[in-house]
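Example record

One chain of 207 residues, shown exactly as stored in the release files.
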Amino acid sequence: MSDRLLVLVRHGQSEWNLKNLFTGWKDPDLTEAGVAEAREAGRKLKAHGLVFDLAFTSVLTRAQHTLDLMLEQLGQTKIPVHKHLALNERDYGDLSGLNKDDARKKWGEDQVLIWRRSYDVPPPGGESLKDTLARTLPYYVQEILPCVLRGERTLVAAHGNSLRALIMVLEKLSPEGILKRELATGVPIIYRLNADATVASKVDLAA
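Predicted structure tokens for this chain:
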């Protein structure tokens, strides 16, 4: 039986995570802590004996840097890497670059909470989680999933909200369920899939 392996990893802590800023499609790099998280993720995957055939990531630096650091730790820097904006973080529009506390002062805590935690209400000029799913899921179904089902062991380094889209499908979560799902930075989630693309097993490598 082929090993239908899919590993999802949210990027390590970014400079703007540290500063409590809405990041979205802005492009800060990892902090020193984020670099350490990415390397630790690679070490954990290596300790589990995982070998990958290819990887996917977004067009944003923090996800690509995380992937590069993991592959270095794995000794697998030569595998093909596919980069696509479909895996980018949710676009926070007018909130991008703002401190979350400042945004609450400007628009009110209740309104900011709606933008952050509702399924289908976008911030001004940005995307809702539903919008993010609408661009991420087709890419998963058309590009990533076929590789996994062919037995190509696949690593995906992306962002909290683009990965939520994949997890929503993999774990059959409702819109309400996925909103409650928190993804820690730099923590691999290992899925093995059945031939029908359902999940056979899941291992979360949180420390």
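Notes: DSSP finds eight helices and six strands in the chain.
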